[in-house]
From TrEMBL:
Protein name according to UniProt: Tripeptidyl aminopeptidase
The AB hydrolase-1 domain, residue ranges: 123-251
Sequence ranges assigned to domain Peptidase S33 tripeptidyl aminopeptidase-like C-terminal in this UniProt record: 406-498
GO MF, one annotated term: aminopeptidase activity
Organism: Nocardia rhizosphaerihabitans
UniProt cross-references to Pfam families, sorted A to Z: Abhydrolase_1, Abhydrolase_4
Keywords, comma-separated and alphabetical: Aminopeptidase, Hydrolase, Protease, Signal
Amino acid sequence: MKRAKGLTVALTGLMACAGLIGCAGPEAEAKPRTAVPDRFTSQQLDWKACEVPKLDEAGAQCADVTVPVNYADPQGPTLTVAISRITGTDPQRGVMLSNSGGPGGEGLDFMVDVGKAMTPEVRARYDLIGMDPRGVGRSSAVDCRWPIGFGLHSAGLDAAGFAESVAIHGDLAARCVATEGARLPHITTRNTARDMDVIRGILGAEKISYFGTSYGTYLGAVYMQMFPDRSDRMVLDSAADPDAYGTVGMMQAMGPANEAALDLWADWVATRDGEYHFGTSRAQVRGAVQNLIEQAADQPIRLGEYEIDEHWLPVVLFVGLDSPDQYEMLAGQIRTIADAAAGNPAQPDETLDATLGFAMKARPNDNSAQMAIMCGDVAAPRDPEFYRRNIEAARATEPIFAGFTNNITPCAFWAPPTEPTTVVRNGVPAMIVQSTGDTRTAYDGAVALHNDLSASRMVTLQDVPIHWIFGRYQNSCVYSAVNTYFRDGTLPAGDMTCRVD
């Protein structure tokens, strides 16, 4: 019999959109833009020390930008967007904005890492601007006061686990409505793109260059669609398909990619059975992982202050599989969890504690901004049966991740978006950088974005399961292509394929 869980929540009957909302075509972006009052575009920023060691060591300064909550009502309430600036040394330098992904990721210090991947010549040519988008981090942050930290988890292994998951996500959505109220519908990607354009104007730039990864590629593509004449050198690293963006299509695309990455990890672990004791073949290692999830479903695994059940164990795997550099880390984490499940003394190390704390703890680790942005951008199907059918249909080919990548989310209980979803179709030049094995933004999605951006070029890193390349995963071919584009604005003559150094 399935055990009772410690977290008890009530399913909340919030009204939400029953299906995907209609989309406005590209011509919608050609309509005159609502003028932003001078009090926003001419504001003087108060630059000061960031009081973030990583930024302070890089010589950065930080400031708060005031923007409207609702651009359709610019005389109404305002919020702040926190930005950082690492100044370039070239007198003719430009401005490069950025986004680190998520959505909901804090990005004030993101350009410190990206800047290290730039050649000195390129680095000198830009003021690098980090940003916590609206609703996130040091900006006017969404705080739904969730009892857990993360709005995505696995549905579990059976009907009881799925029913519990539905109740949890209904409760999370209700908490956001109760705590954020009227501001919630305006924490969207389109409004963040408008915030970026206000920042462009304040910094005195005619155009912006941009580096975004993961969700940041969607934000960059939306900016290009809304402000094509203000987009300069745009690099979209680990790109999302804008037509599949949201908690359904984008999540579903992660399933096969993560199962494939789990195969590679299992092969790696199988050659080290003397250390990890999960078996000497891919099948044995996979079987050990599946058994561990089933054990967690029957009885949560106590590890330090955490009780890890079948909802959260796949999240640990998901987090660890986004880079081959993390195989050893992930193997150690699963070994620790297995030891705890066997009743042996075990404590999470720093990395596992960070993952579990981010996912399972309440404030201050609440990542409700992620759901606020995604649910505010795109409506999701409301009927729980839609998700249950998708989970069951995927289990045969995605035995570990079907319940995670097809699960219901708080978006099923969200109010309809206030604006149509952005359709990205334009001829703004851009560089798309993508690995074929990406576990977060699947390769096919980057190809789709490439087709949507008719003047783009694609740089493919072949046979590497890595998410976010430039600034995270050293590859001379990719780094050279990106630096060349940022240096002189020259895209490759055609699409490129890079391989591991």
